[in-house]
């Protein structure tokens, strides 16, 4: 079939709700192209997208209406879609790979936005990875396109969530999406924060531009705060490279495995023989009679010497006179933050907090916070003594609190010791037309 007198359709690649995608030949320029035969074309959007020129955008060469058939001629992008890449790597991507892809897509979107073009439907199926380059396709061919670039920021945040978590985020207001760290252990906190901000339900709370999202992603230190995921990591060979075969690798594990099995079998035989002797039976009987499983004492509240508000990145005044109310045993007496214009403190600072000073340093097991308003988030820091410097004086956070209920708790890593605890609020809940957090009680248990 020949379209527009020059494009020969050679092979159907995909058939979807929006279009049929064909591998084709441009008989005038003698080059391979992709042709999308559209079910519901947006001519104006296609023509605007055709003016884009960026290495991260699949180029549009031509757009035509041939009788009843509308079609778009594009660069034939070689590579693998993100959706296919995820399927090949166990369902999700490592944070490092996901961030690399999303940052490139954000850069491409920023280029388009600067020229007045909004994509409107960025998805794992229209982002193609070829070598070390990610490209976005389907500009102008996905039906009604929104005019707010922050719609693309939300869509890219959702793609990033899906790459990291292995599933699409919930978009139902009645059932908000779980935080990435609740879905997959080890997602870096900075990456989670960037994803959640990009996906904020209120467009005003999202990154203002795709460039801002790109900059936030490229600033993340992926060497810190990352636990290896269960899926394939970045050492998986890229497309076009063959992984070592079983025959090439079996010697590296088969011989040690056989040796371990032989040793284990020998120990079993020795154990059976020993258990049959008088000495063995006597030892086993005494062990069963005297050994009782250890039981750990439940966490107990620790004595608190004092509590104060902590605002090292602002003017130092965050209702400090109310801070003592969070340790008086009465949840109805509260401390609240100042009022801000957005959940991220009006973008004036990264957070505010409460410092709890203990009677004496010791082992810490849990932090509990009671708050009447839901939707806040906080990191927990532990130090030997309070420090006015942040974050340098507090090290790395040891736990995260998600204010989704009236009472939330965070179990601290085993072996945590200190004399001061910082509950550092990183996101505020909505309070009418503004944002503030209200805390009723804070308890530290050891």
Could you characterize what this model shows?
Helices cover 26% and strands 27% of the residues. The protein has 446 residues and is an alpha+beta fold. It is elongated and about 85 Å long.
TL;DR?
The chain has helices at residues 43-50, 82-88, 95-113, 150-165, 180-183, 189-198, 210-218, 246-249, 251-275, 278-290, and strands spanning 2-3, 7-15, 19-26, 31-38, 60-66, 69-75, 80-81, 127-130, 133-136, 171-172, 175-176, 304-310, 335-336, 352-363, 366-370, 376-383, 399-403, 407-411, 417-427, 430-431, 434-435, 438-439, 441-445. With 446 residues, it is of the alpha+beta class. The chain is elongated and about 85 Å long.
- Physical arrangement of strands within the biggest beta sheet: 1-2-3-4-6-5
The largest sheet is: 6 strands, antiparallel
Terminal CA distance = 75 Å
The general outline is elongated
Q: Give the proportion of residues in helices.
A: 25-40%
* Strand elements, count: 23
Radius of gyration: 29 Å
Q: Spans with pLDDT under 50 lasting ≥5 residues?
A: 224-253, 289-293
Secondary-structure class: alpha+beta
Which band does the percent of strand residues land in? 25-35%
- Helix tally equals 10
Mean pLDDT: 82
Task: Set out the fold topology.
Elements lengths: L1 E2 L3 E9 L3 E8 L4 E8 L4 H8 L9 E7 L2 E7 L4 E2 H7 L6 H19 L13 E4 L2 E4 L13 H16 L5 E2 L2 E2 L3 H4 L5 H10 L11 H9 L27 H4 L1 H25 L2 H13 L13 E7 L24 E2 L15 E12 L2 E5 L5 E8 L15 E5 L3 E5 L5 E11 L2 E2 L2 E2 L2 E2 L1 E5 L1
Antiparallel strand pairs: 1-2, 2-3, 3-4, 4-6, 5-6, 7-8, 8-9, 10-11, 12-14, 13-22, 14-19, 15-18, 15-23, 16-17, 16-19, 20-21
Helix pairs in contact: 3-4, 3-7, 4-6
